[in-house]
Automatic annotation (TrEMBL):
Alphabetical keyword list: DNA-binding
Protein name per its UniProtKB record: MmcQ/YjbR family DNA-binding protein
GO molecular function terms noted in the UniProt entry: DNA binding
UniProt-listed Gene3D superfamilies: 3.90.1150.30
Species of origin: Propioniciclava soli
Protein's UniProt keywords contain Transport: no
Superkingdom, natural source: Bacteria
The keyword Metal-binding is annotated on this UniProt entry: no
Entry-linked InterPro entries: YjbR-like_sf (IPR038056), YjbR/MT2646/Rv2570-like (IPR058532)
Length: 130
């Protein structure tokens, strides 16, 4: 089954996230389930999703989904900006709705880097550190 595209190619938020995500060693992009996904061997971030329990609500259509360290995840969940996304939430992922909140580029990069470190092969993490 082919999924419809659920993002706008001209979205400036997406362009900014794309530039940041693709700056990591070995990072690539593909469209999965109609949304942009950034990965090495495993996905480390995606753009857009649904809130757990929303049953199709697109309130996260312009959101960064990422996988933080488990200890950091607990801290982030104390911040109202972060929510548990549907589907990936049970696997430790969180979402930051970019329509509602305007994080700094540094904060977004930090979230992407943490997620990259959680999912990338050790050789790519070492390359990042070099």
């Amino acid at each position: 089954m082919t999924h419809p595209q659920m993002f706008d190619d001209d979205d400036a938020l997406l362009a900014g996230l794309r530039n940041l995500a693709l700056s990591f060693p070995g990072a690539q992009e593909k469209v999965s389930h109609g949304r942009p996904v950034w990965f090495t061997r495993k996905t480390f971030a995606s753009y857009g999703g649904h809130v757990k329990g929303s049953h199709g609500d697109t309130s996260l259509s312009r959101a960064l989904l990422f996988k933080p360290d488990a200890d950091h995840r607990d801290l982030l969940l104390r911040d109202e900006r972060f929510v548990v996304p549907a589907y990936d939430g049970p696997y430790g992922w969180l979402a930051l709705a970019l329509d509602t909140w305007e994080p700094s580029a540094e904060e977004v990069r930090d979230l992407l880097e943490e997620s990259f470190r959680m999912t990338a092969p050790p050789a790519l993490v070492r390359e990042l550190e070099a």
